C-alpha cells in the first residue's frame, strides 16, 4: 500500500502512514485560548505583582479577622468588659480573696457592710453600674473614709475585686441598711 492509494494527504515515516488531517477548529480554538490565558495569568500574577496567591489572600483575611475580633472585644474597663469578668470564675475567686483581705474590714466578710456600705443591696451612693463601682474602688471617696485602691492593688487586682463586688449585687445579705439611691 503506497501513500497515493489513500484519499487525502498522507505522510509515511518508519513504515507508519498517517493522514495529514487538519486539527479540528474547536480544538485549535481551545488551544489558543489556553495559551492566551497562560500569558494573561503569567502577566497578572508574576509580572505586575497585582495578583495575590491563595496563601497571601488567606493571610490577609486572617489578619483582618483577628483585627476585627480584637476591636469587638469590650474594653476591660467598660461596663460590658467588667461584666464579662464576672463570668470568669478564676477572676471572681481571686476577687473574693482580695475582698476578704482588703475590703472586709469595712464592708464585712460577705459585703454586708460595717463602716462601709452594704454592697449586696440595690442601693448605691455612687452608682451601681460596673464602671461606677470601678471608679469608686480605684479613686476612693477619701472624705468619707473609702480609700483609693488603684495604687495599692494595681489594675489586675482592682478588676478582679470589682468583678467579685458585681457578683454580690442584689444578693441582699442582711447587714447595714441600704444607703443611697436604688439602682434602676
Ligand atoms: C477603711 C474602710 C474601707 C475599706 C478598707 C474599703 N472601703 Fe469601700 N467604702 C468605705 C466607705 C466608708 C464607703 C462609703 C463612702 C461614702 O459614704 O461616699 C465605701 C464605699 C464603697 C463603695 C461604693 C458604695 C456605694 O454605695 O456607692 C464601693 C463599691 C466600695 N466601697 C468597695 C470597696 C472595695 C472593693 C474595697 C476593697 C478593695 C473597699 N471598698 C475597701 C470604706 C472602706
From TrEMBL:
Keyword Iron attributed: yes
Boundaries of every Cytochrome c domain copy: 90-169
Segments traversing the membrane: 26-45
Pfam families the UniProt entry points to: Cytochrome_CBB3, FixP_N
Database matches in Gene3D superfamilies: 6.10.280.130, Cytochrome c-like domain
UniProt keyword list: Heme, Iron, Membrane, Metal-binding, Transmembrane, Transmembrane helix
InterPro entries reported in the protein's UniProt record: CcoP_N (IPR032858), CcoP_N_sf (IPR038414), Cyt_c-like_dom (IPR009056), Cyt_c-like_dom_sf (IPR036909), Cytochrome_c_Oxidase_Subunit (IPR050597)
UniProt-recorded name of the protein: C-type cytochrome
Lineage: Bacteria, Pseudomonadati, Myxococcota, Myxococcia, Myxococcales
